[in-house]
Amino acid sequence: MAHYQQQGDIPPKRHTQHRRPAEGGEGAKGELYYEELMGEEGFSSDSSLLYHRNIPSTIAGAREWEVGDLSTTPNHPLVPRHLKLHDLFTAEEVATTDVVTGRRLVLGNGDVRISYAVAGATSPWYRNGIGDECVYVERGAARVETVFGAFDVAEGDYLVIPRATTHRWIPVTDGEEPLRAYCIEANSHIAPPKRYLSKYGQFLEHAPYCERDLRPPVGTLLAEDVGADPAEETEVFIKHRGNGPGGIVGTVHTLPFHPLDVVGWDGCLYPYAFNLRDFEPITGRVHQPPPVHQVFEGWNFVICNFVPRKVDYHPLAVPVPYYHSNVDSDEIMFYVDGDYEARKGSGIGRGSISVHPGGHAHGPQPGASEASLGVEYFDETAVMVDTFRPLELGEGGRAVDDGKYAWSWSGGRGSGPESGGGDFSIG
Ligand SMILES: [Fe+2]
């Protein structure tokens, strides 16, 4: 992140003595806080300094954590797919599902994994040692407690959580909708596109959002602020590199204290929230190219969003997209809200994912282009992840593949081995 933040109690000069308030008589010194430099790219990129009450390397126990089924299956034979995420969790399962241990892998490759959770339970304390996470809140709300401070997130929020940030998810359970979390886990960092930024990192005027739209954590958050004992022994679930599926395994560390022990921090590395409704759509007389929808990027993938917007206003404009071959990418669209003019008749609806793989052109369903003529406004909300390496189907994706989307451009006439009208699911 480009812009510097400072919260809580920090010393005026970095790497100098910083002490707890003194107890006792004149001349007494408080105990030193423990300074931690949390830095990216070998301390050659963004970093923050955190001041802990406890030695941050302390552990009192370690055991293996089974991170769940992270196996993947190639999209072979190659077909576009429709995955129905709202079928992944029953109403009964929500109460005991948490965002961290309950997320189910939908799609993944060596750069990024997309998982989904409908959660009513508080997650354990957690940090992802593999890469940054960008969690999109499709519905519902949650409080997210991190060592940098807390967030209240709700529908439409992205929460970008840097690699190795200790945090937990506490769903709001008395709302109309349960917390629905669309979890994008990178093996790298996730950041605003470089082309939106000045050479020193300020958002430029053409960017569809800027610093004012980003919500950093406000204030510090200590154990006693959440009603916990600072000396409370606590487990932290860590996802990290190893020899499991996708090169991922898990470990649980036991700390002999509560992880919320940071009295102050400053720097440019911290979690932040951004709401999709604060993304200002870029529109034009004719169809604008897909990169105008980009919101974030990671190594070998981008995150885009489609928001309600005025559509193309040339007198002869065709508002829905042209057919396109994104020859270097798989395109994964998560449909959150609205009408989806281009997908009419395909079965796509709220909670759907479309998988449009590289090597195969895609575009509107039959009749959608003609039907869109004269339309002035699209009421649609969607989050898209485009990956340069092919995505494979995870356990969750295989479970909710509708098996017939591939035939939606041919009037349902499928020719796969299982088709007979068209089920081609590998789930
Ligand atoms: Fe596309």
Task: Explain how this protein is built.
By secondary structure, this protein is mainly β. The chain is 3% helix and 35% strand. The protein has three helices and 28 strands. Strands 5-28-7-8-15-10-13-20-16 form a nine-stranded antiparallel beta sheet. A hairpin with a 2-residue loop joins strand 11 and strand 12. The radius of gyration is 23 Å and the shape is globular. Fe (ii) ion binds next to loops.
What keywords describe this structure?
mainly beta, binds fe (ii) ion, 35% strand, disordered C terminus, 3 helices, 427 residues
Short description:
This protein has about 425 residues and is mostly beta strands.
Strand content range: 25-35%
Tally of separate helices: 3
Poorly predicted sequence stretches spanning 5 or more consecutive residues? 417-427
Quaternary class: single chain
Determine the structural class based on helices, strands and strand pairing: mainly beta
How widely separated are the two ends? 40 Å
Output mean pLDDT: 93
Strand order of the largest sheet: 5-28-7-8-15-10-13-20-16
Whole-angstrom Rg: 23 Å
Q: Secondary-structure blueprint of this entry?
A:
Layout: E1 5-8, E2 34-39, E3 47-52, E4 61-65, E5 72-73, E6 81-84, H1 91-94, E7 104-108, E8 112-119, E9 125-128, E10 133-139, E11 141-146, E12 149-154, E13 157-161, E14 167-171, E15 179-186, E16 214-215, E17 234-241, E18 248-255, E19 262-267, E20 272-275, E21 294-298, E22 301-306, E23 309-310, E24 330-338, E25 352-356, H2 368-372, E26 377-378, E27 380-387, E28 392-394, H3 395-399
Parallel strand pairs: 9-17
Antiparallel strand pairs: 1-19, 2-3, 3-19, 4-18, 5-28, 6-25, 7-8, 7-28, 8-15, 10-13, 10-15, 11-12, 11-14, 13-20, 16-20, 17-18, 21-22, 22-27, 23-26, 24-25, 24-27
Fe (ii) ion binds next to loops.
